[in-house]
Amino acid sequence: MRKDYNLEKRKFVIGGFIVVIVAIYLCKLFDLQILDDKYSEIAVNNARSTKITHPSRGQIYDRNGKLVVYNEPAYDLVVVPRDVQEFDTLGMCKILRLDRKDFETLWKNMSDPEKNKNYSATTPQPLVQNLDSTTYGHLQETLHRFPGFDIAQRIIRRYNYVSAANVLGNIREVNAEDIERDSDNYYLPGDYTGDMGVEKSYEKYLRGVKGKEIFVRDARGRIVRDEQGKIKYYNDGKDNVDPIAGKDLQLSLDIELQQYCEGLMRGAAQRGQIMHGKRGAIVAIEPKTGEVLALVTSPNYDPAMLVGKDRGKNYAKLVDDGTKPLYDRAIMAAYPPGSTFKPTQGLIFMQEGITNINTSYPCYRGYINKGLKIGCHGHGSPIALQPALATSCNGYFCWGLYYMLKNHKYENLDSAFTVWKNYMVQMGYGYKLNIDLPGESRGFIPNAKFYNDNIGEGKWGANTILSIAIGQGEIMATPLQIANLSATIANRGYYITPHVVKQIRDVGIPKEYTEKHQPSINREYYENVVTGMRMAVTGGTCKNANLPGLEVCGKTGTVQNPHGQDHSVFMGFAPKDDPKIAICVYVENAGFGAQVAVPLGSRIFERYLLGKSRNENDEIVSEDTVSNEIENGANKWSDKWLQERPSVFDKKEVPAQLNPDNTPKQESEKTAHHPSPSDPINGLPQNREQEQAILTQPIVDIFTRYGIYKG
Ligand SMILES: [Zn+2]
Question: Which pLDDT value is given to residue 317?
Answer without folding.
Answer: 96
